[in-house]
Amino acid sequence: MTQRLTPTAAFLLVIPPLMWSGNAVVGRLVAPLISPMTLNLLRWGIAFLILLPLARRVLQRNSDLWPQWKRFTLLSLFSIGGYNALLYLALNTSTAINVTLVGASTPVWMLLIGRLFFKVPVSRRQILGAVLSIAGVVLVLGRGDWEVMTQLRLVPGDLYVLLASIAWATYSWLLAHPTPESAAIRADWSTFLMGQIVFGLGWSMAFTAGEWALTPAHIDWSAGLVAALAFIAVGPAVIAYGSWGAGVSRAGPAIAGFFINLTPLFTAVLSSIFIGEAPRAYHAAAFVLIVSGIVISSRK
Known about the structure:
Layout: H1 7-30, H2 36-55, H3 69-81, H4 83-90, H5 96-102, H6 106-118, H7 124-141, H8 146-150, H9 156-176, H10 183-186, H11 189-214, H12 223-251, H13 253-259, H14 263-274, H15 281-298
């Protein structure tokens, strides 16, 4: 893997933040209509059906997928099953803007996990970029008030996003270190994503079963909910995951992680248009810190 930010890699890595910002806004809109684990299960169930004509061969008995079931079980736990479920759970108690800005801590976890578990050195520029990202996160958590920052109390949604960020960082490093046996599956983005979806649906069904057994889970069907499901299954799921995998393979997870921090910009714009969550001054200041982190960390 060559950790170099080419124009192609940059283009591929911009697509997921755009899609995921839409995912956060739509998830916030439909939060009163459907329980979070159920939303995640339906999203990936639809994505499975979309990809089936393209990637059905990976489900055959003699596929290379089944001997690697342990790896794909792990990949799907940190992404499809865990990350997305935690994100939808967070949107029940936090705003779409806050959720995506707190998610700006992802580069920090990228660097830490890479250093601790994959022995990847961390440059001074990356450390500075991470510090700027942390500053942006703290600014959002404190709602732009220094007194609030000194008495910081995380709402449940903020904690869920932090856990989701750790899960996504772990997933990205696993992507960047494929096994030789997975080469045939990874050669086609649709088969690779389908392999993750198959095992991710198992996690999602388990989490959804627990949701319906332990909480007042619900679904209020409407045309709006159906449209929302169609969007999050196509854009934030199929298109974004395919682009992210290709971008990480070109630029490396450490650099790619900083592109996640573009999500708050797109989210702020979409939130102000569709759900009236107008950005505040501290959101703009946090975004400046986040973008600075991207620029500094990715420069040679």
